[in-house]
Amino acid sequence: MSAATPRFGFAGLGVMGVPMSRHLLAAGPLIVWNRTQSRADGRGEDGARRAQTPAEVLDGADSVGVCVLDGAAVREIALGENGFVAAGDKAGKVVVDFSSIAPEDAREIAEELATHGVGWIDAPVSGGVTGADKATLSIMVGCSDEDALAKVMPTFEATGKNIFRCGPLGAGHAMKCLNNYLSAVGLTASNEALLIGPQCGLEPSAMVDILTVSPARTRSLARRRRPSGWCAHAFTMALARVRERRGILI
């Protein structure tokens, strides 16, 4: 891969993928793919080539970022019938997984890709849509191949601000799982407090004002300056996030 003109690829044009791919396009040629093709059109990466399959993305890029829902989606993109393994020009290419998946899934997918000459780096991110839009994401890197890491540094530099080496393959995803766990615990506890407060005669908005200037302050609390009716919904969403990650954490 030419350090001056890296060819980027990206699979997964969701709320995170669109701004991330936009930054990649600003840094060099870009080819993109999305499972729902209509969502790949006019999603903020104008000027990028549209691929019909993940294999086509890998054929047209030196490294490919992936940001999709879960491990099953990553596995299909990488190892499916039209996945990266079906690419004609794949030797020496590197896949960067920005998704949040189980470390075990990451290692299994990486091992299979390696038999096809394709490198893998797990690189889940923190910072949300705002971080993706501003290219200030924190990137948690799991990698055992220094050459592969060097190849994808332009990708990291285009999309993130803080790049953390967490350890070998799977370590990035392990760190992201623990990060999500702590975030979900804090969110659940704060929302539970806001459900209990009104039963004690407290006004939720006043509680938020107090908690956001105390040691109990969290980012989720700072964002929750809403009418009191939001509490039950927010608590339900917090529990959903815990359940979503439970299978990965156990």
What topology does this entry show?
Blueprint: E1 8-11, H1 17-27, E2 30-33, E3 49-50, H2 54-59, E4 63-66, H3 71-79, E5 94-97, H4 103-114, E6 119-122, E7 125-126, H5 128-134, E8 137-142, H6 146-159, E9 160-167, H7 171-196, H8 204-211, H9 219-222, H10 230-249
Helix pairs in contact: 1-5, 1-6, 3-4, 7-10
Task: Looking at this protein, list some descriptive labels.
single chain, 250 residues, alpha/beta, Rossmann fold, 3-stranded mixed beta sheet, 10 helices, 9 strands, 15% strand
Structural commentary:
With 250 residues, the chain is α/β, with parallel strands linked by helices. The protein folds into two domains: 161 residues, Rossmann fold, CATH 3.40.50.720; 75 residues, no CATH class. The protein contains ten helices and nine strands. The strands form two sheets. It has a six-stranded parallel beta sheet with strand order 3-2-1-4-5-6, with helices on both faces. Strand 1, helix 1 and strand 2 form a beta-alpha-beta unit. Helix 1 crosses helix 6. The longest helix has 26 residues.
